[in-house]
Amino acid sequence: MPSLRADDITMAYDDRVIGENLTVGVPDGEFTVILGPNACGKSTLLRSLSRLLKPTAGTVYLDGKDIHRMRGKDLATRLGLLPQSTVTPAGIPVLDLVRRGRYPHQSALSRWSHEDEASVRRALEQTGMTELTGRPVDELSGGQRQRAWVAMALAQESPILLLDEPTTFLDVSHQIALLDLFAELNRSAGRTIVAVLHDINHAARYAGHLVVMSAGRVVAQGSPAEVLTSDLLAEVFDVEATIIEDPVNGGPHIITRHQGSRPAPTAPILRKVAP
């Protein structure tokens, strides 16, 4: 049994049901990506796995225990979360925000330790935020703010890390840098990573396990090579797809166009521009 799993859960906001009868297992020590079109329930599933949202039916288990019956600190030492929407305390410097990631490891009798300091320093270095430690978070660019929050999640050093669209606001270079970092944490430290992503090829390249959702249902689970077929991409994303071998890792690489769109011209169309 995976350490983190959802058994036959129904997810809802008040009377609005997002998904019913979902069963999902998160493989231990794997990089899992939840993939699907907008408004299909990806972030809601992640919120349910992290205890931010209590299912109206079914149960989410962590280490065999109902996640809603666990003490908050016990949960936080096992599971970290980077939500999609974050609220930054006014005027808080980057360093103070990242230090909050160590909260689950503190107690009334413990003091800030060398281990705490090393975890914070490592998280800042990993996210490229060392030079910005004194800057207020709310004065940073969107991408810098995102990396500050990622650093806080990394400083928590929980063995399971849930990430809701972690590459939001980031340019391509920083997207790749963060995904490489998560992949390295997965490989070298054995941390279980679960991320909601929109980019199909990023998911195909980095994930060892995919959970594909559509209209509140889990329609496929498995490795990228097993899951990412032309038929599934047409059904879930409404695109025609050619699947080739990724030259970087040998996995699937997806070339898409919208179903019904015209084929690309075989030669560029040249137009005269008035002087």
From TrEMBL:
Q: List where in the cell it is found.
A: Cell membrane
* Region called Disordered, residue ranges: 255-275
Which processes are annotated in GO (biological process)?
iron ion transport
Q: Which CDD domains match?
A: ABC_Iron-Siderophores_B12_Hemin
Family annotation (Gene3D superfamilies): P-loop containing nucleotide triphosphate hydrolases
Give GO terms: molecular function aspect only: ATP binding; ATP hydrolysis activity
Designated name of the protein: ABC transporter ATP-binding protein
Which PANTHER family is this protein grouped with? IRON(3+)-HYDROXAMATE IMPORT ATP-BINDING PROTEIN FHUC
Cellular component aspect of the GO annotation: plasma membrane
Q: What is its main location?
A: membrane
For this UniProt record, the keywords arranged alphabetically read as follows: ATP-binding, Cell membrane, Ion transport, Iron, Iron transport, Membrane, Nucleotide-binding, Transport
Q: Which SUPFAM superfamilies match?
A: P-loop containing nucleoside triphosphate hydrolases (SSF52540)
Asked if Cell membrane is a keyword of the record, the answer is yes
Q: What is the lineage of its organism?
A: Bacteria, Bacillati, Actinomycetota, Actinomycetes, Kitasatosporales
Using the record's annotation, list all stretches that form the ABC transporter domain: 4-240
Q: Species name for this entry?
A: Streptomyces reniochalinae
* Membrane topology note: Peripheral membrane protein
A Pfam cross-reference name: ABC_tran
SMART domains, per the entry: AAA (SM00382)
InterPro entries associated with the record: AAA+_ATPase, ABC_transporter-like_ATP-bd, ABC_transporter-like_CS, P-loop_NTPase, Siderophore_ABC-ATPase
